[in-house]
Amino acid sequence: MEKLLAILKKIKPGADFEGSKNLIESGILDSFAIISLAAEISDEFDVEVTVRDILPENFSSPEAIMKMIEHLQDED
Amino acid sequence: MSYTAITFLVFLIITGTFYFLLPKKFRWGVLLASSFIFYYLNSGWLTIFLAATTISIYFSGILMARINDKFEVKKTGLSKEDRKKLKAKSEKQKKAIVAAALLINFGLLFLLKYFNFFGDGVNMLFSSLHISAKLTTFNWVMPLGISYYTLQSAGYLIDIYRGKIKAEKNLGRLALFVSFFPQIVEGPIGRYDKLAETLYEGHSFDYDRFRLGGQLMVWGFFKKMVIADRAAMLVNTVFSHYTHYSGLSVAIAVLLFTLQIYADFSGCMDIVTGVAQIFGVTLEANFRQPFFSKSVAEFWRRWHSTLGASMRDYIFYSISMSKPYRKFSKNTREKLNDHFGNLIPTAGALFFVWFGMGIWHGASLKYIIYGLYYYVFMMLGEAFKPLTEKLTVKLKININSKLFHLYQMLRTFVVVYFGMLIFRSHNIAVAWKLFISIFTGFSLHAVTNGSLLKLGLNGSDYILLFATFVLLTAVGTLKEKDFKIRELIAQRALIIRWSIYLVAIFALIIFGIYGKGYNVGTFIYGNF
Questions:
Q1: How far is B313 from chain A (nearest CA, A)?
Q2: Could you tell me the domains of chain A?
Q3: Across the strands, what pairs with B303?
Q4: Are B194 and B45 within one domain?
Q5: Quick check: pTM over 0.90?
Q6: Highest mean pLDDT, choosing among B253-267, B430-444, B507-521
Q7: Helix count (H) and strand count (E) of chain A?
């Protein structure tokens, strides 16, 4: 989780990730950020984030993103 | 039959009577029959194209569902390696199906909407190269709403392919999803996962839904007939005879076109959302007070948002998340700093989005430039972001102050304003000429010498338009602050409530613009 939070803070410095319930609706994660985030996650966690995983529910909170990563790790 | 025609109201009453009287399980069938009758009355034999799209996406969906089912059966008991191989094989088959179906549907769209534009381009190239060959162009009639239902259908297929939704097994139900009459003319572009259930479920008559939907319809009619069609009179005068006008006349025409297109398109969305609400169907919002946007990107999230969201999900992510593109992004990020390493790959994928946004509006160079115009502003904003952020810190500007937000809104409006000039002009050369003429021919004499009264509007029209602009701004401000205006009106005492309704209806009758034979002007976005 810390690794993920570090990535998020690198992509959107200063944003309140832990306090936000919906990162997409609150505008913290726009499509620019999601692309960078997907790339960083793929590199750091050695998983393949594909277009199928780009769903609002997968990016709604750091916990949801972590859950997606764990799911992708299980698939591999 | 336009949404503003009296015949549409009769059509609605008949549809409503059958819908609410028949047993619940048949109600979606009433909507389907009405949708095809509505389409046939508008498009005649061209309904065949709508049917072709429906049938093609139906069978493609079913085939993909079969492949999925087969995979689920076969995968049990397989080793991880074999399961992966089987999955890859299934994916390949599904990809072939979705590609073929998209090719058929976008092929039809290309043939009917873009072939002449393409043909003219090729012929110009041939003639400049002194080649005598000539591509024959056709005078096709475009089926109603083809750009909308093609995009909605493509979204349905891509969502099945991506595993987001399951294929619809009932052809009739899918046909309703594609053809639902309130949204077939100019959207909103619906997503299967959000729209389908509310369409298929038989809803009981609900008085609250009826009056809230009815209120929204009246507000939509008001925007269209009182505001948009009135503003159109000046706009049409100036743009049809653009060589006669310059300076303030053109500046006002562009301003009123901005008002016209907003009132026209969002008015239509209000009408159709209200109609759908009466039948218990929730359509996605296409407008969210766009002129309160603080950036161009935000404007496009608030203006025709279902188109922007479709372009993002089906073009932007398809490109940026594809394997070769991810490789390119990774290389760029490794070679450049964080800012440009992220910006360049995103900008590359967004180019296709904005090219698509432009050409979706119409088959001409003007629309392509219209899309790319916004792209350039957006990319410049992103490229200079670190610099502007540093500058605001250095100048000690409070970026959260109301004054700064107002500046951002005005800045966005200026970009949108000149975008509207491109959008409304006959072609890009005319747009440029008019743009220059605003500045070169500018004189405040036009205010005093009466020339503004010769543009198709009289003094009372100007006053009325100004009053409606104030009303639109007030309603927008309240909505921006999350006031539920329709619910608030509905909760008032009977006498107040009905006074508001009657004033609104009389305002429509008295101030509405009616053409020959009391026909209301067609909706602008219905042409796309």
A1: 9
A2: 2-75 (1.10.1200.10)
A3: B287
A4: yes
A5: no
A6: B253-267
A7: 3, 0
